[in-house]
Structure formats: structure tokens, C-alpha cells
Amino acid sequence: MVVDYPEIPEQIPNYKEVLRKGFKFATYRRLRGHGIGAELEMIEAIEILSSGNVTKYLASNPDFCHELLHILKDIKEDLATALQKGVTAGPWGEDYIKALKFVEDC
């Protein structure tokens, strides 16, 4: 991403505009899937975003996609609250401890 490979975006036309639209698209379901797999799909989505350093990028560039950063912060808060209450897994076994690590940078 922009943080690790700053020379790559310079070679791609409209990189930031396209990236911003992709981030905005990710907000439409608040990173959740649908049905019984919604929580698991949310964790998978934040894992993907984290692996691309999106959480770090948004933390240092909060105006780039405020909506996505807000969603990630909400997820972080929800997971932290669950863990404080001793809930470490979702209803279908989703690992909240693992998930919280992906959004720590927000």
C-alpha cells in the first residue's frame, strides 16, 4: 500500500481516488457479511484490511475515508467491550481476541 511502497501509487492513474472509492465500498455493510456468517466475515474483512496496513494508513490519514475509520473504531470498541466482559468468541466461535489485534492501530 501507500505506506510500504510509495513509488507504486505514483505509477497508477487516479490511485488515491480509486483507493478512496474502494474504502467507501467496504463501508456499505459495515464490513459484515450477512446471515449467520456475518461476524466471521467481518473478522476476515478486518484481517484483510490489516494485512494491507489499511488500519495504520487510516489512523495517520483519518480524513482519507472517515467512514471506514469510524467503522473500524466501532468494531474495536465492540470487541474490547466483549473481551472486558469475558466474551472471547462470537456465537459461532469467532475469535474476538484475534480480531481485536487487527484493529488495534485504529
Q: Any overview of this molecule?
A:
This protein has 106 residues and is mainly alpha-helical. Helix content is 60%, strand content 0%. The protein has one domain (7-102). It contains six helices and no strands. Helix 3 runs parallel beside helix 6 (96-102) and helix 5 packs antiparallel against helix 6 (96-102). The model has no long low-confidence stretch (mean pLDDT 90).
Proportion of residues in β-strands = under 5%
Shape: elongated
Low-confidence sequence ranges: none
**Kindly, what is the distance between the CA atoms of the first and last residues, rounded to a whole number of angstroms?**
17 Å
Q: Could you give the order of the helices and strands?
A: HHHHHH
Tell me the Rg in angstroms: 15 Å
- The helix tally amounts to 6
Overall average residue pLDDT? 90
The number of E-state strands comes to: 0
Please indicate the count of domains.
1
Brief rundown of the structure:
With 106 residues, the protein is mainly alpha-helical. It is built from 6 helices and no strands. The protein has one domain.
Question: What labels would you give this structure?
Answer:
elongated; 6 helices; mainly alpha; 106 residues
Question: Helices and strands in order, then pairings?
Answer:
Elements: H1 7-11, H2 15-26, H3 38-51, H4 54-60, H5 66-84, H6 96-102
